[in-house]
Amino acid sequence: MYFGYTHCPDVCPLTMAHMARAVQRLGAEAKDVRILFVTVDPKRDTPQVLRADTAAFSPKARGITGSPQQIRALASRYHVAYTYGKPDPNGNYTVTHSAAIYVFDEKGQGMLIGTEVTPPIEIAHDLKQLIRMGT
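Above: the chain's sequence. Below: its structure in token form.
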């Protein structure tokens, strides 16, 4: 699971690409693996935008949105911080946010935390270990 936003110019697409490559490296072992992208910008990241954006990275990726209050509550649960920048004259703005990758087992228990700079090969290695522990 990763908290970000689709208009992010750098960290979010890099992190999503890393996670997608890691899952791809798993091959058949990835059958039950999902990438969850939780938006911290529900105003712009509609379900349709999230669906298109996550699909561009991986068929295993799903976008999650909700009301600003729901997103705040979920982000708070995982100690994710985010703030909105001042809109430019066209209404565009950036969102500064935490950039952790959360890995859960099939029961929803947190197992690992990575970062946007964790290489896909290392993510894949850790995921393989967790998958094998669960079988």
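The chain has a mean pLDDT of 94.
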